[in-house]
Amino acid sequence: MSMNDHLPFHDMTALITGASTGIGAATAIAFAQQGANIIIHYNANHAQAESVLQTAQQYGVKAELFQADLTAAEGSRKLARYASQKPVDILVNNAGSLLTRTRVLDFTEELWERMLMLNLTSAFFLSQAVLKGMVDRKRGFIVNISSVAARTGGGLGALAYSATKAAISTMTKGLAKEFAPHNIRVNAVSPGTIDTNYHRTFSSPEALDDVRAATPLARLGRPEEIADTVVFLCSDAASFVHGQVLEVNGGFLMA
Ligand SMILES: NC(=O)c1ccc[n+]([C@@H]2O[C@H](COP(=O)([O-])OP(=O)(O)OC[C@H]3O[C@@H](n4cnc5c(N)ncnc54)[C@H](OP(=O)(O)O)[C@@H]3O)[C@@H](O)[C@H]2O)c1
Fold it and tell me: H or E stretch including 141?
């Protein structure tokens, strides 16, 4: 008996991409709290990834770090190869970024390719890499992190980002259909505006005030509120929730 045997995810391994900061870090810690062993993927923020690892270990779970830049095909392949050798029961495709706010007429092919690789292509091939093991073990959960931008088209300069997020939402439904017979549940969470580095980098204080004013709950979301939704989707409480894109946005955009 270990101290975690009574916890719902005690016999599972969760891989969370982009788990050094923000939503991914909160999700990794939430799964560790629920007894899952975790694999923390990160890119540039080694120190913060290390601090997520230490917090997770305080819950008595195994935790490890893996670095990969997912804007590059090479980094995406490296993570997929690594993950395919691990017993991943839960995959959270969370790593993502707007990279830069760039209007359509200034967009380059290179930026378009990096955007798609980071926010879409790497998530597809990482899913493929872990799905093989999930099929063999007849169990698995995938949660993709989309965005409210998938439905609104995003703010100015976020066209490509929004398009990748719409694709992530659609990919969720396709995966859900194909892997349901293997006891693999696939869903997505579509966050509204969550208070993370993302907005410290890409949004002005005025733009965030406008979001608060347009949000019935009159505030930004917290990373933990998205993490709780991801954990819910992988739990028995959500055993009939499949192929859904769950909107978590304080009422900013409804239906
Ligand atoms: N915040 C929001 O309002 C909001 C709303 C809708 C959707 N989302 C989505 O939520 C997810 C998490 O974002 P967040 O708000 O938590 O932002 P964040 O705090 O900036 O976290 C982004 C994570 O993605 C990783 N990442 C960024 N660029 C990467 C790259 N080139 N290669 C590999 N990993 C990379 C980062 O790793 P390093 O820091 O280690 O480089 C970090 O762990 C993203 O997919 C984002 O699009 C956020």
Answer: strand 140-145
